[in-house]
């Protein structure tokens, strides 16, 4: 019987007090955003954000908790925005959303900064026995390379490999974690062309191989095109995540046509709409997937939001955490 | 629903008999532009000068808006209303002092371009701010029920502004596609359905504005720049918006900076007179987009950048204005900033408007003198 694990792709909305306080401390301009050198008062405010966001997740009863990624002003491009050898330039659109991030431009050899590892250390120190297991969140190498501009490595393949090596360096500094979510929306939004698709699968494989934790490569905003999906299947992943909110049919097609990993992550809660799904709906959706894939029984099924959660106001984001946790817990009671 | 009013539908003169979209002066139809030429306009040529809408609020107005939420102070909604009136009067006069032919109040009463309307439409609720980028947030509303017309949106704003203005007043109004796209949709099957429902409400508001005397209305659809593939939805929204609007009401559409090649020439089918486009921001690199096929509407050309805090010199703005003649002849060119000016320091915003008007007046004189030799403004060979 599959184990249901409630989690999220991270990047939670900042608590409302922090939106105002950090905006006052840091400023509104692009040069005021996080570059990894923030001072004491800003650090202290983010410490309180981390504590509060971990409490939200623990109170909801999630099986995996994330650090919250409150500092990620540039969304999933954050790890590059705080790295040396990277200039953050103009404000550019974040995928097909009314959201923006600073374009990271790589101008020299990339080296891991340990920034994300430090956040995870801080989160680990706050967790007690009641909390779920710690889950790290990183952009996948393909998406991070896609969001960035290369002025150093010279060609797409070399740049992708360099970004993968950079992420491997970050993962190697992580404390003990239970799970790593690699977010790869670009596999859907700007899928790799022939030649790069195989390299993208290999790059993801390398980053996944840098940790002994369970690795979930989570995709969203539709389904990965067939060929890129087939190459993703070559990576040594514990689970692939699918966005069943935005396109359940195309994702189901990939799963039935090309198979999938032994574990699976299901994006079942809409991270971009304030309408809160009922626990019943989530359970029905899990059941629907199981019925459609009779040939495979998953060891672990991660129940998650399809996207990051920062698109939502705090009240609705927290309600969605609740729904995910209850759907996973109640489902276990029914099937145990 | 009835069709767009055609010639012969009523006893008004000067209407065009052709089907479909309202015609521009250049199409040989009713001239909805000449009505804005000041009586004492000094030149034969007339380049209509106006603004997109928003303008920096005086600092004391921002303070006043904070005070009303603060229980420590004896400052209530009536006081704030008075402050809004004062600011609207001040900024309308500031626009007139800059010499603009068509003015507005700088949107002094509006907090944000979606929130303001969502507060007035039944069916919306607010749950709290969401991130746009960095520490810039937006109180993104949710549509939780059928949308319907609640309290008036802009009629009081228009009546006040036109009451204090010596010049004609333009009314900018957020378009239904943007109202839908920048909200959470909890109620309707899809965003398109919501956009059409909202278009009917915008139509209702525009009819009320026209009844109040408005003759120049600009629909703002910034969301079209971010999701250009939806231009057909915006077109259908506009068909609903213009339903029953008299043909002598000038209708514009403002679309912020984006890849205009993805919406051109399709937008030429939209039932508006004028497109207001942000071209200074990209240094006019997109001008060729609008030359093939021919631009058949009026063009409101952005000639000062809304995102740089330096006032462009008159000579630079004159060259920018002349870029417009590569797309349309002078009688179809409106002169405007790229976008709303609200993010600029107020003195910079004023300086841009003032130089813009002076540049337009100088170009008009050069046109009268036959000195402009650019595109559609070049004197014809048989002159």
Total strand segments of chain A: 11
* Topology order of chain B in helix (H) and strand (E) letters: EHHHEEEEHEHEHEHHEEEHEH
Classify the secondary structure makeup of chain B into a structural class: alpha/beta
- Identify the biggest protein-protein contact and residues per side: A-B, 33 and 21 residues
What form of chain B results from the Cα inertia axes? globular
Strand arrangement in the largest pleated sheet of chain B: 1-12-11-10-9-8-6
Q: How many helical stretches of chain B? A: 10
For the record, give the distance between the C-alpha atoms at the N and C termini of chain A, rounded to a whole number: 8 Å
Oligomer: heterodimer
- Which whole number gives the mean pLDDT of chain B? 91
Let me know the average pLDDT of chain A. Answer: 95
Number of helices of chain A: 12
Biggest β-sheet description of chain B: 7 strands, parallel
**What is the SS-derived class of chain A?**
alpha/beta
Largest sheet of chain A: 8 strands, parallel
> Are there runs of chain A of 5+ residues with pLDDT below 50, and where?
331-336
- Low-pLDDT sequence parts of chain B: 1-21
Q: How is the largest sheet of chain A built, in terms of strand order?
A: 1-11-10-9-8-7-5-2
Number of strands of chain B: 12
- Distance separating the two termini of chain B: 47 Å
Helix content of chain B: 25-40%
């Amino acid at each position: 019987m599959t184990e249901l694990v409630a989690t999220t792709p991270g990047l939670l909305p900042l608590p409302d007090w922090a939106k105002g306080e950090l905006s006052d401390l840091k400023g509104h301009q692009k040069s005021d955003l996080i570059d990894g050198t923030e001072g004491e008062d800003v650090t202290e405010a983010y410490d309180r954000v981390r504590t509060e966001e971990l409490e939200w997740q623990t109170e909801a009863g999630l099986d995996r908790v994330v650090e919250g990624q409150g500092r990620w002003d540039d969304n999933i491009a954050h790890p590059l925005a705080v790295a040396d050898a990277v200039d953050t330039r103009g404000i550019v659109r974040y995928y097909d959303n009314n959201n923006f991030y600073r374009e990271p431009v790589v101008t020299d050899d990339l080296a891991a900064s340990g920034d994300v590892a430090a956040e995870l250390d801080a989160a680990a120190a706050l967790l007690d026995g009641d909390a779920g297991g710690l889950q790290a969140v990183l952009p996948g190498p393909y998406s991070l390379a896609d969001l960035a501009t290369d002025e150093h490595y010279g060609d797409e393949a070399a740049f992708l490999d360099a970004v993968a090596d950079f992420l491997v360096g970050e993962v190697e500094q992580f404390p003990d974690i239970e799970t790593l979510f690699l977010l790869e929306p670009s596999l859907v939004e700007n899928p790799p062309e022939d030649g790069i698709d195989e390299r993208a699968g290999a790059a993801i494989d390398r980053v996944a191989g840098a940790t002994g934790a369970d690795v979930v490569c989570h995709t969203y905003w539709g389904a990965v095109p067939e060929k890129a999906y087939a190459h993703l299947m070559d990576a040594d992943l514990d689970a692939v995540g699918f966005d069943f909110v935005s396109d359940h049919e195309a994702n189901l097609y990939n799963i039935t046509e090309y198979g999938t990993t032994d574990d699976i992550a299901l994006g079942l809660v809409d991270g971009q709409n304030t309408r809160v799904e009922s626990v019943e709906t989530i359970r029905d959706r899990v059941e629907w997937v199981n019925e459609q894939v009779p040939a495979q029984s998953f060891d672990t099924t991660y129940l998650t939001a399809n996207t990051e959660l920062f698109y939502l106001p705090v009240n609705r984001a927290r309600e969605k955490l609740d729904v995910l946790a209850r759907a996973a817990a109640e489902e276990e009671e029914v099937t145990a | 629903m009835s069709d767009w009013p055609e010639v012969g539908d009523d006893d008004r003169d000067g209407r065009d008999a052709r089907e479909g979209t309202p015609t521009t002066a250049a199409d040989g139809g009713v001239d909805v532009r000449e009505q804005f030429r000041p009586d004492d306009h000094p030149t034969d040529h007339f380049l209509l000068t106006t603004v997109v809408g928003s303008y920096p609020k005086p600092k004391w107005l921002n303070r006043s808006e904070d005070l009303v939420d603060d229980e420590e102070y004896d400052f209530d909604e009536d006081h704030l209303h008075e402050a809004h009136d004062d600011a609207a009067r001040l900024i309308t006069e500031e626009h007139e002092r800059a010499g603009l032919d068509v003015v507005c109040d700088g949107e002094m009463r509006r907090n944000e371009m979606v929130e303001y309307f969502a507060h007035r439409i039944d069916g919306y609720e607010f749950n709290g701010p969401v991130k746009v980028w960095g520490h810039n947030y937006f109180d993104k509303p949710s549509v939780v029920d059928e949308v319907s017309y609640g309290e008036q949106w802009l009629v009081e704003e228009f009546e006040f502004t036109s009451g204090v203005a010596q010049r004609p007043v333009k009314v900018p109004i957020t378009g239904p596609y943007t109202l839908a796209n920048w909200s959470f949709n909890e109620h309707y099957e899809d965003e398109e359905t919501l956009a059409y429902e909202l278009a009917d409400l915008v139509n209702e508001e525009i009819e009320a504005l026209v009844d109040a005397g408005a003759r120049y209305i600009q629909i703002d659809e910034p969301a079209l720049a971010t999701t250009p593939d939806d231009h057909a939805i915006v077109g259908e929204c506009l068909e609903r918006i213009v339903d029953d609007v008299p043909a002598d009401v000038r209708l514009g559409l403002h679309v912020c900076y984006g890849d205009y090649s993805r919406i051109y020439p399709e937008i030429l089918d939209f039932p508006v007179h004028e497109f207001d486009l942000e071209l200074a921001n990209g240094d006019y690199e997109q001008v060729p987009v609008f030359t093939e096929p021919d631009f058949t509407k009026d063009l409101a050309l952005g000639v000062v950048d809304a995102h740089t805090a330096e006032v462009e010199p008159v000579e630079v703005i004159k060259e920018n204005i002349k870029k417009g003649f590569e797309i349309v002849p002078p009688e179809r060119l409106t002169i405007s900033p790229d976008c709303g000016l609200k993010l600029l320091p107020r003195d910079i915003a004023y300086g841009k408007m003032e130089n813009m008007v002076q540049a337009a007046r100088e170009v008009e004189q050069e046109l009268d003198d036959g000195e402009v030799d650019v595109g559609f403004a070049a004197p014809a060979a048989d002159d």
